[in-house]
Amino acid sequence: MPTILITGGHSGIGAECSKLLASKYHFNLILAGRSPEKMETFATELRKSYGIKVNVLNMDTSSLASVRAGVDECLKLLNNDEIDSLQAIICNAGVRLNGKVSYTEDGYETTYATNYLGHVLLVELLMDRVAENGRIVFTTSGTHDPDTADGKMMGIADKETAIELANMGKNNTKPISLGKMYATSKLDMIQYAYELDRRLKNAGTSLSSIAYDPGATSGTGFLRSMPKPVQWLAGSSLMHWIMKRNGVTMGDVIFSGKSLAKVAVDLAYANGSGKYFQSNDGKLIERRSSKLSYDKQRAEKLWNDTKTLIHLQPNEESKKIR
Ligand SMILES: NC(=O)c1ccc[n+]([C@@H]2O[C@H](COP(=O)([O-])OP(=O)(O)OC[C@H]3O[C@@H](n4cnc5c(N)ncnc54)[C@H](OP(=O)(O)O)[C@@H]3O)[C@@H](O)[C@H]2O)c1
Predict the structure, then answer these.
(1) Nearest CA-CA partner of 218 in 168, 253, 248, 261
(2) 94, 202, 210, 292: which sits with the fewest CB atoms below 10 Å from its CB?
(3) Which residues line ligand 1 (CB under 6 A)?
């Protein structure tokens, strides 16, 4: 049975996605993440409940070395026929940090490295092993679009190159807020997804690259770095009412997780490459992302700068799109 690799697939939106992939679509799973105990507990639950095969892969997406090590483990599983073909990669792990700017062991701003750079490295290194009709799905966020109610809550960075973003706040420069950094990491994920789609189409492959926004979703660990009163307020029905009234995209952990699974494997989304899907108030819809996300010049620069930041070697570039 084909396998789907998902980052952050053991909790929140990712866990609901994993459950539907197992129960309705009967895929085997690879849970990739930085918390082996939590992943193993959830893997046991999935194996028992749905009879699928679940592998657990150590992969901290904020660390380029950890992503590389995780990919090596995954390649071993594939090469030793311990797992069947890869049908999809779901780049779902993410953080919305708070407080002071921090840097990873690679020297990059943590939000940007975790949400964006690590996932690009994962995709670049594994893409050639995904089935020809497979999909790569990126969990993004409506906050990337400053023209929407979601985006107005955070705004995006005015400095926009990947190199500037990864090095934000260094050399005595003032860092942007971590909210803006979060929104911009998701903007870059969407632009990378679109650029990947264009390159895959130009190369004549039928692999899909899809962006997905689960909507503002309470009941996950998403706000865990925020003060407790903020977490409580964000989960309250009053706040839901206010957000909905103000036009914020409203997710729900079960619906948004199931929608992520559908976008990743359901036949209904087989022509979804290069598109942006969103869960909003119980509906899964295709819509336009921000104006900037369609800027092809920015996307090309982002593509090249990102390759530099993740230290991708020329011989590691995908053969599908070289
Ligand atoms: N909730 C929302 O309102 C909302 C809205 C729009 C988009 N999103 C996006 O939806 C995705 C899932 O978020 P969620 O709401 O389900 O929150 P969540 O429950 O906190 O899930 C986030 C997942 O990411 C994993 N993760 C965090 N840092 C990691 C790292 N360095 N390496 C590997 N895994 C890491 C976490 O693993 P650990 O257990 O190890 O921490 C967790 O499994 C995220 O990309 C988020 O940005 C959420």
Answers:
(1) 253
(2) 202
(3) 7-8, 10-14, 33-35, 38, 60-62, 92-95, 114, 139, 141, 213-214, 216-217, 220-222, 251
Query: DSSP of 51-120, one letter per residue?
Result: ---EEEEE--TT-HHHHHHHHHHHHHHHHTTSS--EEEEEE-------SS--B-TTSSBHHHIIIIIHHH
d(CA 188, CA 111): 12
Whole-model pTM over 0.90: yes
Cα separations (Å) of 192 from 195, 234, 304, 306?
A: 5, 30, 10, 9
Ligand 1 pocket: which of 56, 122, 222, 224 to mutate (most atoms <8 Å of CB)? Answer: 222
Residue 283 has pLDDT above 70, yes or no: yes
Domain boundaries, the chain: 3-316
Which residue do the tokens 């708070």 mark?
98
Ligand 1 midpoint to CA 13 (Å): 8
Angle at 34 between CA 47 and CA 90, to 5 degrees: 65
Please choose, from the candidates 159, 265, 263, 246, the residue with its C-alpha nearest in 3D space to the C-alpha of residue 212. 263
From the CA of 171, how far away is ligand 1's center (Å)?
Answer: 30
- Read off the amino acid at residue 167: N
Confidence of residue 1 (pLDDT cuts 50, 70, 90): confident
How many A from CA of 96 to the centre of ligand 1? 8
The per-residue pLDDT for range 26-65, each reduced to its tens digit, is 999 999 999 999 999 999 999 999 999 999 999 999 999 9
